[in-house]
Amino acid sequence: MKKALAIFVAVLFVFAMASLSFAVEEKKAAPAPAVEKKAEPAKPAEKPKVQQVTGDVKAVDTKAMTVTVTKMMKGKAEETTVTVSDKTKIMMGQEKKALADVKAGDKVTVKYKEVEGKKVAKSIAIHEAKPAEKKAAAPAKPAEKK
Asked: Is there a single domain that holds both residue 26 and residue 70?
């Protein structure tokens, strides 16, 4: 019985060594296609990241399709001019708006990508005036006497 077990273990050992040698040969052959892959054209550059600026609209040029946003950074006004395309989504709350609806002085959040050196807007969110600002704009009514 011991001899049969010893023969069985020896045969398993031979098969294990044979399979390892075949695996090593396959790994040596595998790098050859990798060299061919290097000959393929390079992958396109990474997609530009979406950036965001929130501030007040300084100017809107409907002919040039641009919006200039002023943002306060450490006490300094920083201007960002973005180009508006046909794909740009302009929203005020849930309502879809047009570039003509964006006015100087509006508070906006613009999400844009830099494409070929231009900042192209993906979306413009127009923020509504706060209720406190609306109340301050309306004249105060005198209290009625009873």
From this structure: no
Q: Take residue 2 and report the two structure tokens written for it.
A: 């011991």
Can you give the CATH number for the domain in which 59 is found? 2.40.50.320
CB 89 within 8 A of CB 123: yes
How far apart CA 10 and CA 4 sit, in angstroms, is 10
Instruction: Determine which of 20-24, 75-79, 86-90 has the lowest per-residue pLDDT on average.
Output: 20-24
* Assessment of whether the complete model's pTM goes beyond 0.70: no
Same domain, 107 and 67: yes
Amino acid type, 140: A
Evaluate if residue 52 carries a pLDDT over 70: yes
Q: Say how many domains are in the chain.
A: 2
What are the pLDDT digits (tens) for 15-37?
888 877 776 665 555 555 554 55
16 and 70 belong to one structural domain: no
Closest CA to 121 of 90, 83, 92, 91: 83
Judge if 56 and 30 occupy the same domain.
no
CB 102 within 8 A of CB 60: yes
DSSP string, 52-117: EEEEEEEEEETTTTEEEEEEEETTEEEEEEEEEEEEEEEEETTEEE-GGG--TT-EEEEEEEEETT
